[in-house]
Design goal:
The chain contains eleven helices and 20 strands. By secondary structure, it is α/β, with parallel strands linked by helices. The strands form five sheets. Strands 8-7-16-17-18-15-19 form a seven-stranded mixed β-sheet, sandwiched between helices. A five-stranded parallel β-sheet has the order 10-2-1-14-20, with helices on one face. Helix 1 packs parallel to helix 6, helix 1 runs parallel beside helix 11 and helix 2 crosses helix 11. The longest helix is centred in the C-terminal third of the chain and has 18 residues. The protein is globular. Bound molecules: flavin-adenine dinucleotide (FAD). The site of flavin-adenine dinucleotide (FAD) has 37 residues, from helix 1, strand 15, strand 19 and helix 11.
Length: 420
């Protein structure tokens, strides 16, 4: 009989652990507390815009090898699309200046040697000054490691690290930033090609995983919140979902707990977990993007940070968004639309008319990527031989990202496999 793995939480971490275990011959059952799968990475129909939108615009890079391998194993890699080259259009909406950052397709960041490909008004020495970040320790602040000022900082370093860490870069962990820089900028353009789930996060990263697991004889059940784990002799023996809904585990059965930190700490008292989080704000406007607008644009000098062009929709991401979570929604929509119009170069008559819009404020989008919070992240091993942890907040060496989530899921699955 096949060994069984119970995955708690149907986010990217849980699903990637489940897919890896199913590929290794396990019968996988996923239990999700809410009525929807995908966790913080999902799509839904939005009545205000009459469109299916994602809870947040998610950007992957070609450096995200675990995420891409996950998509490949569920047959949806082709749904992650982007330009053939690592090119990023930028605009400074305070001055109107536009530029294209062309990182090429090499394995080394040789573009920094070519003035015409560098960020405008920057010198080679500005890039060399970033080198202390490369091997910085996780307990160091970015602000104590590099100079967080100047043109290169404003036009590249700040937008990149703010997006990756979801906190103001000077207060972020230099070690986490270093991991991003090593795996992306330092690895040349071939590692920096931007990729988005063109048909939506659920269609590309979630639904195919569910189909894959069910196709292997497993199950995915929603509305099933794990309330308690029963244990004996260093092993989890039963999963209690409330009332008489109890799953008794066989001697070879394993559990991957892939829930957010607060739920994990409630289920495993004494577990060290991050306790502080940061918001991400996304705004979606129903409008046809101008034909010449790139699919992704970095925006500096305003409120908006990244502008995404989807069919029938312009969408915006603002990281470290705690300052915006209590702002009246319409006021925020108007302020963001003003920036969108400038960035996309929309005609004046469109600026005056707010199209159908939606604002999604994810208050606990990511753990706070500061040295203090990073130090609280646990590994995948727990006090129980048959229970492994997964989640973007576990100690992956990366900030809270899809890539980190998949790595955590893969690592938890490998721990389960190694135990047998
Ligand atoms: C707005 C936004 C924008 C983002 N942008 C990007 C981006 O551009 N690029 C990028 O790489 N990453 C991005 N991220 C981060 C990425 O979405 C997360 O890292 C990833 O989705 C986390 O997945 P997870 O499985 O670790 O956690 P979650 O998605 O939180 O999954 C945990 C699941 O466990 C369930 N659960 C909780 N308690 C229980 C219980 N007791 N029993 C059963 N189930 C339970 C939850 O309901 C949830 O479904 C963004 C996140 C947000 C919110």
């Amino acid at each position: 009989m096949a060994k069984t793995a119970h995955i708690i939480g149907a986010g990217i971490s849980g699903l990637s652990a489940g897919v890896r275990l199913a590929n290794a011959g396990y019968l996988v059952h996923v239990h999700e507390a809410t009525q929807q799968v995908g966790g913080r990475c999902r799509s839904y129909f939005d009545a205000a815009t009459n469109l299916t939108i994602d809870n947040g615009n998610h950007l992957l890079l070609s450096a995200n090898h675990h995420a891409l391998a996950y998509a490949r194993s569920i047959g949806s890699e082709a749904g992650l699309v982007g330009p053939a080259q690592a090119q990023f259009a930028f605009v400074d909406i305070s001055t109107g200046q536009r530029w294209l950052l062309d990182l090429g397709d090499g394995r080394l960041p040789l573009w920094v040697l070519d003035e015409s490909r560098r960020v405008p008004d920057t010198k080679l020495t500005d890039y060399l000054a970033l080198s202390p970040l490369i091997w910085a320790g996780t307990s160091k602040l970015i602000g104590d490691t590099i100079h967080c000022k100047g043109v290169l900082y404003d036009r590249l370093v700040q937008p990149l690290l703010l997006a990756a860490l979801n906190c103001d870069p000077p207060e972020g962990s230099a070690g986490l930033a270093g991991a991003i820089v090593r795996e992306t900028l330092l690895a040349g353009g071939q590692a920096c090609r931007p990729l988005v789930a063109r048909d939506g996060l659920s269609a590309v990263l979630i639904d195919p995983a569910i189909k894959f697991l069910e196709g292997k004889g497993g199950s995915v059940r929603i509305g099933r919140e794990l309330r308690e784990v029963a244990s004996e002799g260093g092993r989890v023996t039963a999963l209690k979902f409330g009332g008489d809904d109890v799953v008794t585990l066989g001697p070879d059965d394993a559990v991957v707990l892939a829930v957010p930190p607060r739920s994990a700490a409630a289920l495993l008292p004494g577990l060290s977990v991050p306790t502080k989080f940061r918001a991400i704000v996304n705004a979606h406007f129903r409008t046809d993007p101008p034909r010449d607008l790139p699919p992704l644009m970095g925006v500096v000098g305003g409120l908006v940070e990244w502008l995404f062009a989807f069919p029938q929709r312009l969408s915006v991401t603002i990281s470290n968004g705690d300052r915006l979570v209590d702002m009246p929604r319409e006021e925020l929509a108007i302020a963001i639309w003003r920036d969108v119009c400038k960035a996309a170069g929309l005609p004046a008559e469109q600026q005056a008319q707010l199209p159908p819009w939606q604002i999604v404020r994810e208050r606990r989008a990511t753990f706070e990527a500061t040295p203090e919070q990073n130090a609280l992240r646990p590994g995948a091993k727990t006090a129980f031989r048959n229970l492994a942890l997964a989640g973007d907040w576990t100690d992956t060496g990366l900030p809270a990202t899809i890539e980190g989530s998949v790595r955590s899921g893969d690592r938890a699955a490998d721990l389960v496999l190694a135990a047998h």
